[in-house]
Amino acid sequence: MLVHREKKSRYQIQMPLISLIDIIFLLLIYFLLTTNFMVDEGIKIKLPQAKTSAPQTEQEITIYVNREGRAFLENREVPLGNLFERLKEMIGGRKDKLVVIKADRSVILNKAVKVMDVAKAAGAGRLCLATEKEF
């Protein structure tokens, strides 16, 4: 009587791809959630540079002055005559409200100072001229 042994199949080495794919997807989700999606503001200005500038973290009223000297409040152009009334409404009676002037670096200084005067007359207790950090 002839006895045949059953052939044993050799083990094949397989990498666990399912767990690797799960890790890749988790990393992808992590990076998508932690990425800061910044939206550029509508008015293109180049801020003056300073070595000692610091980031502002509190809520403020922002006035933009472009290179032609036109003032923008909340991305809407406002003539200097109407700027006083609009700022007075936004400031209300709060003397500690911060008003930030973001003037283009090529604007004539006199136009930025006029906007600062209007803001001070409207009741702004604190004024700040925005700069960007010089590298």
Automatic annotation (TrEMBL):
GO biological process assignments: protein transport
Keywords, comma-separated and alphabetical: Cell membrane, Membrane, Protein transport, Transmembrane, Transmembrane helix, Transport
Topological type in the membrane: Single-pass membrane protein; Single-pass type II membrane protein
Protein's cellular compartments: Cell membrane
Gene Ontology CC terms: plasma membrane
InterPro entries: ExbD
Membrane spanning residue stretches: 20-39
Record GO terms (molecular function): transmembrane transporter activity
Domain of life: Bacteria
Pfam families per record: ExbD
Similarity comment text for this entry: Belongs to the ExbD/TolR family.
Name used for this protein in its record: Biopolymer transporter ExbD
